[in-house]
Write a structure and sequence with these properties.
This protein is mainly α and 804 residues long. Among the domains are: 16-122; 162-169 and 184-304 and 327-397 and 767-798, no CATH class. It is built from 34 helices and five strands. It has a three-stranded antiparallel sheet. Strand 2 and strand 3 (645-647) form a beta hairpin. Helix 5 (60-69) packs across helix 6, helix 9 (205-222) runs parallel beside helix 12 (284-298) and helix 22 (507-520) packs parallel to helix 25 (555-563). The longest helix has 22 residues, at 96-117. It is elongated, with a radius of gyration of 30 Å. Residues 579-696 are annotated as: Disordered. Pfam families: Hid1.
Length: 804
C-alpha cells in the first residue's frame, strides 16, 4: 500500500483523510457505518483543494485496493457523495461551505467513477437502489427508490442552474429571499445568447469554473461507454446518456441550448483585439471545451437504426414537454433536429466556422490569437448537425459560407496527412466532405475563386476552391502515410460527386488528376490488390463528367488529357494474359512506394508553409474500428434533367459500374476477422502477403477491363489530337498558350457519345459508421483530458491506447 505517501502531504485535509480511509479499509476494521457523519464529512469539508489535488491525493492503486478489499466502504463513499450533491441541489447551495462540499464531492466522484466502470462486477452499482438509504433511515419515499445514477444526474443538472453558484441570480436581495431552486424556470437562466435565447448574461468566471467541474463529472458518468468493447450492435445505448437526455431531465432544453450557445458564441481571439489573450486569463475556454465534449457525447445516436429525426420545423422554440415528442427519445438529438430559424442556423454556422478557422488565423500573426485545441470535437458536432438536421445542411450549402468550413477542413487534412496519430482527424474531415459532396450545391459553390492565402504545404496555384480540394487530395494520396489507403475510395468519390459542376480547373489541378490516373493505372498497382482498379474507374468517371457536362471552360483539363493520351491508350490495351500479369507484379516488388512521387511537377510550395510532419515518436493515439467500404458508406442517386435526384434501387445497382458484386468493394462487416485481414493487406499495398491469399487471373482482369468507360475520352482524342498536331506543325508551335486558345474555342457538340446520366454517391448512415464515430469521439476525449488525466491507466475496452 502506498498510503504513507499520501499522508506526507498533510497540508491538505484530503491527505490524512484518504490515508485514514485507506487504512480503515485495510486494517480490517470492517465497514464504516453510513450514519457515521463525522467520518464521512472529512472527505468534503476541505476548502483548499482543486480537482488536480484530488487526483494527486487519491492514487489509482488505493482506489482499486478499497474496491477489492473493502467494497462496502467504497459503495458508502459513492452513496454519501451523491447524497451530498442531492442535498446541495435541494438547498440551492446558498453558503460558501455548501458550495465547497458540492465541488469536493464532484471531484471525488470524477476521480472514482472510472474505477467503478472498469470492473464488470461494479458496473451495475450506480443503477441499483441503495438499501436502507432513506434519508431518515426508515422513511422509504419514492424519491429514495431512484437508482443512484439517476439521483446523481438529476442533482448535477439542478446544480447547473443554481443561482449564484452556476448562474447569475435574478434577485437583488439577501439570502432569505433567494430563489427556490425547484420553482425557477431554468429556461430563463440559459448560459449564453444564441439559439432560442436573446439575452447574454454578464460573464462570471466563478460560475464558469463551477460549470466546468460539474460538466467534467457528467462526462465521467457518460464515459462508461469506454469500458465496453466495440460491437456491431450499435443499439447498445449508454444508460447514463439515455436517462440524461430523457423527459426525466427537466432541464434538458435549457441545458442543450446552454451547451450549444456557449460553444458557438465563443470568440478565442478576444473580441478582435490581437494579443488580447496574453493579457487576460480565459476562463471561458475550459468551459467551452467541456461543453463541446458533453454535447457530442449526448448526440451519440445511431440514426440508421431509428426513425429519422423530424425536420418539419413545425415546432416552436419553447420548452417541448410533449409526452411523446416526435423523432427520437433522445431529447438532445430531437432538439438539434428541430432547430429551423435562419438566424439560429447563421449563429451556429458562423460560430463553428470561426472556431475551425482559428488555427489558420495563427499563421498570419503568430500568437496573436489564442490557439484552440478542440477542432476535432467541433468537426464531430458539425457532422451531427448536418446528419440530424437536413435543413441545416441545406442552409450551409445555400451560400458560399460552406467554404468557410471547407478551407479549414482541407487545411487539417493537408497538415495531418503524414501524422499517424491523426488518422481519426483525416477520416472525419473526409466523411464531412463526402456528406457535403452528395448535394449539387456543394459542387456549384466550389467554383468560387480561392483568394484566401492560408499558408499550406501545397503548390502555388491560381484558381477556385475546387482546385484547392483536388490539389490537397493529390497531396494526401501521394505523400500521406500508408494507413490512409482505405480513404482513397472516399477521396475520389468526393471528386466524382462534384465533377459535373466544375466550370474550369486550373492547369495545376488538371495535371494532378492525370498524375493520379498515371499512378493508379500502372500494371503493378492494378494487379496487386483486388479493388485497386476501382480508383481508375472513379478517375475516368471524373474526366467523363467534365468532358460531357463542362467541356467549355475546361481547356486546361482537355489539354492535359491530350498530353497524357498514352495513359488512356495503355489502359485500353491493358494486357490480360497470365505472363503479362506476372510481369506486372514483378515490377511491383521493385517499387515499394505505393505511388510514384516523381513526375508530379509539384513546384514551389506556398510561402510561409511548413511541410506536413509525422507524429513525434511516442505520441499517444487511440485505435479506431475499421470503416465500411465505399459501397456501404454511400448509395447511388441519379440526377434527372431538372436537377432532382432519384435513388437507384439496390437491386438495379447490384453490380457496380465495373461489374463486380459489391462484396469485392467493401471491407465487409468491420468486425469480422476476414475483413480485417483484407484491410491489412490493402494497407500493405506493397507487401507480398496479399498475393498469398489472392492472385489476379486473366478472367478477373477481363471482367473489369471490358467495362472501362473510355469511349468519351477516346472519341475526344480521335477528334482533337489531329487538329492540335496540325496547328503545331503549321505554326511551328511549342507554346501551350496557343493550343489552349484553340481548345477554348473548340467544341465537341454532336461528336461525343450521348451524355451518360450523372451518378452521385450520397453518404448513407449505417451502424458501421455509427460505431466508428463512437470510438473516434471517445478516443479524442480520452486523449484531450490530461489535466486531470481522468481515464489514464484505467482498463478501457472501446479502443487501445497505442504509441506511435
Amino acid at each position: 500500500m502506498a498510503s504513507h505517501a499520501v499522508g506526507s502531504r498533510s497540508s491538505f485535509h484530503l491527505g490524512p483523510v484518504t490515508q485514514g480511509f485507506i487504512s480503515a479499509c485495510c486494517r480490517g476494521e470492517g465497514p464504516v457505518e453510513a450514519t457515521d457523519d463525522a467520518f464521512w464529512d472529512q472527505f468534503w469539508a476541505d476548502t483548499a483543494t482543486s480537482v488536480q489535488d484530488v487526483f494527486a491525493l487519491v492514487p489509482a492503486a488505493e482506489i482499486r485496493a478499497v474496491r477489492e478489499e473493502s467494497p462496502s466502504n467504497l459503495a458508502t463513499l459513492c452513496y454519501k457523495a451523491v447524497e451530498k450533491l442531492v442535498q446541495g441541489a435541494e438547498s440551492g447551495c446558498h453558503t460558501e461551505k455548501e458550495r465547497q462540499i458540492v465541488l469536493n464531492c464532484c471531484r471525488l466522484l470524477t476521480r472514482i467513477l472510472p474505477y467503478i466502470f472498469e470492473d464488470p462486477d461494479w458496473r451495475g452499482f450506480f443503477w441499483s437502489t441503495v438499501p436502507g438509504a432513506g434519508r431518515g433511515g426508515g422513511d422509504e419515499d419514492d424519491e429514495n427508490a431512484r437508482p443512484l445514477a439517476e439521483s446523481l444526474l438529476l442533482a448535477v443538472t439542478d446544480l447547473l442552474f443554481c443561482p449564484d453558484f452556476t448562474v447569475q441570480s435574478h434577485r437583488r436581495s439577501t439570502v432569505d429571499t433567494a430563489e427556490d431552486i425547484h420553482s425557477i424556470d431554468s429556461c430563463e437562466y440559459i448560459w449564453e445568447a444564441g439559439v432560442g435565447f436573446a439575452h447574454s448574461p454578464q460573464p462570471n468566471y466563478i460560475h464558469d469554473l463551477n460549470r466546468t467541474e460539474l460538466l467534467k463529472l457528467l462526462l465521467t458518468c457518460f464515459s462508461e461507454a469506454m469500458y465496453l468493447p466495440p460491437s456491431s450492435d450499435s443499439s447498445n445505448t449508454n444508460p447514463w446518456v439515455q436517462f440524461f437526455c430523457s423527459t426525466e431531465n427537466r432541464h434538458a432544453l435549457p441545458l442543450f441550448t446552454s451547451l450549444l450557445n456557449v460553444v458557438c458564441a465563443y470568440d478565442p481571439v478576444g473580441y478582435g483585439i490581437p494579443y488580447n489573450h496574453l493579457l487576460f486569463s480565459d476562463y471561458r475556454e475550459p468551459l467551452v471545451e467541456e461543453a463541446a465534449q458533453v454535447l457530442i457525447v449526448t448526440l451519440d445516436y445511431d440514426s440508421s437504426t431509428s426513425s429519422s429525426p423530424t425536420v418539419d420545423g413545425t415546432t416552436t422554440g419553447t420548452a417541448m414537454d410533449d409526452v411523446d415528442p416526435p423523432g427520437p427519445d433522445n431529447l438532445f438529438v430531437n432538439y438539434l433536429s428541430r432547430i429551423h430559424r435562419e438566424e439560429d442556423f447563421q449563429f451556429i454556422l458562423k460560430g463553428v466556422a470561426r472556431l475551425l478557422s482559428n488555427p489558420l488565423v495563427q499563421t498570419y500573426l503568430p500568437n496573436s490569437a489564442k490557439k484552440i485545441q478542440f477542432h476535432q470535437e467541433l468537426l464531430v458536432l458539425f457532422w451531427k448537425l448536418c446528419d440530424f438536421n437536413k435543413k441545416f445542411l441545406f442552409f450551409v450549402l445555400k451560400s458560399s459560407d460552406v467554404l468557410d468550413i471547407l478551407v479549414p477542413i482541407l487545411y487539417f487534412l493537408n497538415d495531418a496527412r503524414a501524422d499517424q496519430s491523426r488518422v481519426g482527424l483525416m477520416h472525419i474531415g473526409v466523411f464531412i466532405l463526402l456528406l457535403l459532396s452528395g448535394e449539387r450545391n456543394f459542387g456549384v459553390r466550389l467554383n468560387k475563386p480561392y483568394s484566401v492565402r492560408v499558408p499550406m504545404d501545397i503548390p502555388v496555384f491560381t484558381g477556385t476552391h475546387a482546385d484547392l480540394l483536388i490539389i490537397v487530395f493529390h497531396k494526401i494520396i501521394t505523400s500521406g502515410h500508408q494507413r490512409l489507403q482505405p480513404l482513397f475510395d472516399c477521396l475520389l468519390t468526393i471528386v466524382v460527386n462534384v465533377s459535373p459542376y466544375l466550370k474550369s480547373l486550373s492547369m495545376v489541378a488538371a495535371n494532378k488528376l492525370l498524375h493520379l490516373l498515371e499512378a493508379f493505372s500502372t500494371t503493378w498497382f492494378l494487379f496487386s490488390a483486388v479493388q485497386n482498379h476501382h480508383l481508375v474507374f472513379f478517375l475516368l468517371e471524373v474526366f467523363n463528367n467534365i468532358i460531357q457536362y463542362q467541356f467549355d471552360g475546361n481547356s486546361n483539363l482537355v489539354y492535359a488529357v491530350i498530353r497524357k493520351r498514352n495513359v488512356f491508350h495503355q489502359l485500353a490495351n491493358l494486357p490480360t494474359d497470365s505472363q503479362s500479369i506476372q510481369k506486372g507484379l514483378q515490377r511491383k516488388k521493385k517499387t515499394p512506394e505505393p505511388i510514384s512521387r516523381t513526375n508530379s511537377q509539384d513546384g514551389v510550395s506556398m510561402e510561409g508553409s511548413r511541410p506536413a510532419a509525422p507524429a513525434e515518436p511516442g505520441t499517444l493515439k487511440t485505435s479506431l474500428v475499421a470503416t465500411p467500404g465505399i459501397d456501404k458508406l454511400t448509395e447511388k442517386s441519379q440526377v434527372s434533367e431538372d436537377g432532382t435526384m432519384r435513388s437507384l434501387e439496390p437491386e438495379a445497382s447490384q453490380l457496380s459500374p465495373e461489374g463486380n458484386p459489391p462484396a469485392a468493394l467493401s471491407d465487409g462487416e468491420p468486425w469480422s476477422g476476414e475483413a480485417s485481414h483484407s484491410r491489412r493487406d490493402r494497407r500493405r499495398l506493397s507487401s507480398a502477403s496479399s498475393s498469398a491469399q489472392w492472385t489476379p487471373t486473366p478472367d478477373w482482369v477481363m471482367s473489369w477491363k471490358s467495362k472501362l468507360p473510355l469511349q468519351t475520352i477516346m472519341r475526344l482524342l480521335q477528334v482533337l489530337v489531329p487538329q492540335v498536331e496540325k496547328i503545331c506543325i503549321d505554326k511551328g508551335l511549342t507554346d501551350e498558350s496557343e493550343i489552349l486558345k484553340f481548345l477554348q474555342h473548340g467544341t465537341l457538340v454532336g461528336l461525343l457519345p450521348v451524355p451518360h446520366p450523372i451518378l452521385i454517391r450520397k453518404y448513407q448512415a449505417n451502424s458501421g459508421t455509427a460505431m466508428w464515430f463512437r470510438t473516434y469521439m471517445w478516443g479524442v476525449i480520452y486523449l484531450r483530458n490530461v489535466d486531470p488525466p481522468i481515464w489514464y491507466d484505467t482498463d478501457v475496452k472501446l479502443f487501445e491506447i497505442q504509441r506511435v
